[in-house]
Amino acid sequence: MQVRTERLVADAIEAQEGATIDLSQAAALKIPACAGEDLPANPADGSLVWDTTALAIKVAADGVWLPLALVI
């Protein structure tokens, strides 16, 4: 799986635009799920969530939720 975004921060992993994160050796990646209307209003940059309304992974950037483009 590849995640494409301008900047992604998850725990100790930080990736800039154009980077590829290889999760093939990861035991698991758990992304919290939340309905679109219940997404936090002022999220921390780099937060990830599965939007169950839009059926999309979203990342927080500059206080707003943006959908990610996934290439599998």
Strand and helix order: EEEEEEEE
Low-confidence stretches: none
Q: Count of helices?
A: 0
Label the overall shape.
Answer: globular
Mean pLDDT: 78
- Report the portion of residues in β strands: 35-45%
- Helical/strand content category: mainly beta
Number of separate structural domains = 1
Largest sheet: 4 strands, mixed
Side-by-side strand order of the widest sheet = 4-5-6-7
The percent of residues in helical segments reads under 10%
Could you tell me the number of beta strands? 8
Work out the radius of gyration.
Answer: 12 Å
Report the span from N to C terminus: 5 Å
Describe what you observe in this structure.
The relative contact order is 0.27. Helices cover 0% and strands 42% of the residues. The N and C termini lie close together (5 Å). Strands 4-5-6-7 form a four-stranded mixed sheet, with no helix packed on it. It has a two-stranded antiparallel sheet with strand order 1-8. It has a two-stranded antiparallel ribbon with strand order 2-3. The protein has strands at residues 2-4, 7-10, 13-16, 33-34, 48-51, 56-61, 64-67, 69-71. It has one domain. The model has no long low-confidence stretch (mean pLDDT 78). The chain is mainly beta and 72 residues long.
